[in-house]
Amino acid sequence: MKRVLAFDFGASSGRAILGCFDGEKITLEEVHRFSNDPVSVNGVFYWDVLRLFHEIKQGLLKAKAAGGFDSVGIDTWGVDFGLLDEDGRLLENPVHYRDARTTGYIGKSAAYIAPERLYGITGIQFMECNTCFQLLSLKENRPELLKRAKHLLFMPDLLSYFLTGKMVSEYSIATTSGMIDIQKHDWSDEILSALGLERELFEPIVKTGAVIGKLSDALCEELGLPAADVIAVAGHDTQSAITAVPCAEGDFAFISSGTWSLFGTEPDAPIINETSMRYNFTNEGGYDYVTGFLKNICGLWLIQESRRQWKREGKEYSFAELEKLALESAPFACFIDPDAPQFASPGDLPGRIRDYCRQTGQHVPRTTGEVVRCIYESLAMKYRQVFAGLQDCTGKRFSQINIVGGGTKDGLLCAMAACACGVPVYAGPTEATVLGNVAMQLIAQGELPDIRSARVCIADSTALKHYAPKDEALWAAAYEAFLAATNKA
């Protein structure tokens, strides 16, 4: 029995999960779960990275008590990073991608490098949280911090550095930065020069699946651990999730569903042209330099943050209660664009949804159920819109969609996705990111030969749920109402 330890960090929580492989199937055992609570201080939104490393230590101890492990891998969200000085000391807590410091910097970046050129080199979707825009904000507003910084490490690489003392830039997480030449699989000197950034700030790229090093002697002594390998799994959680899509053959369309919804496919090569730029699709790197061609959609963040607002108001709902309230509300009453900028930051999302509907001349949702139904149906319609763009960019017609990740537990959204997109949806595995992380470690350890065999193994280890499209004419008519509403915004 091969045992590997996966740390999976999401925007609101993290887990330490043991992956056990008997030569045929993978089983998972959660040994530690913890909250990931960003902290706002003097108007800046930070990740509490030292607390997260404390939780990693607890996960290591609990995994040791549960039978031990042969290696460790860490995946997180993309784009965010820590800056370290010449002695390898963290200069400040990493700033959260939802912090307001990058507001307007997509437009400002055009003074440094033409958007068409930036996209042509990287193939990366324009989002204000992209690392290149975060660094441009620092260059203009906090140049003294960049001057002190000698190393930049993305979140999974930073946490792996804390484990090993080794600094690397894993390929998949680096591609989220908007500074990687997607054809050369390396930092773009042209982009770094245009933005006025020193090449020495960035660590050499290592291939996804490489061994970073061993747990440090100091950590092993502190926790009483053996010197296990630390693997550079696909540090970007999206790429870990794509690794676990249970399709071993042919083309497939996927949605990695969680706080974000990542909708895309895995083409033979990056797709970078006028059409993909117009649709704002991204090309992210993965294992063996494969490309995840996808679009980021604001996903269940809308439900999560609305739920937090109702809790602040003294009304605490479970997710099952919210789904029940949504089903009791009238369908297709109003729509929002889930990616509208007013929904990106924390706060009173139900209030902002009402404002959006009021400003676009729609029914204004008053009850909790109406707000939740508006969110679910709007997400499903956004999926339909992006699905059309995906097929236009690739020139392919996909006969089904595989939904993976935590959002597979949300049966209502999966059912609505099938109805809106007009194709069957297969949901599972729920723990796609963890399974991708585990599979990458098993490949690095020589237990699995490649990604195809990993996907076969994951498919054999997973029970999928099937959702068939229904009421397609009603959903098609409602889609026109969605487009009309969102075009008014």
Mind explaining what this structure looks like?
The chain is α/β, with parallel strands linked by helices and 489 residues long. It folds into two domains: 2-237, Nucleotidyltransferase, domain 5; 245-428 and 449-489, Nucleotidyltransferase, domain 5. The chain is 40% helix and 20% strand. The strands form six sheets. The chain has a seven-stranded mixed β-sheet, with helices on both faces. A six-stranded mixed β-sheet has the order 3-2-1-6-14-13. It has a two-stranded antiparallel ribbon with strand order 4-5. The longest helix has 27 residues, at 368-394. It is globular and about 60 Å long.
Catalogue the unreliable spans.
none
Rg computed from alpha carbons, rounded to a whole number of angstroms: 22 Å
- Tally of DSSP helical segments: 19
Report helical residue fraction: 40-55%
- CATH architecture type of the largest domain: 2-Layer Sandwich
Main beta sheet: 7 strands, mixed
What form results from the Cα inertia axes? globular
CATH topology of the largest domain: Nucleotidyltransferase, domain 5
What is the total tally of β strands? 21
Category from helices, strands and their pairing: alpha/beta
Average pLDDT works out at 97
Strand order of the largest sheet: 17-18-16-15-19-20-21
> What name goes with the CATH superfamily of the largest domain?
ATPase, nucleotide binding domain
Instruction: Determine the N-to-C terminus distance.
Output: 55 Å
Properties at a glance:
489 residues; alpha/beta; Nucleotidyltransferase, domain 5; 2 domains; seven-stranded mixed β-sheet; six-stranded mixed β-sheet; globular
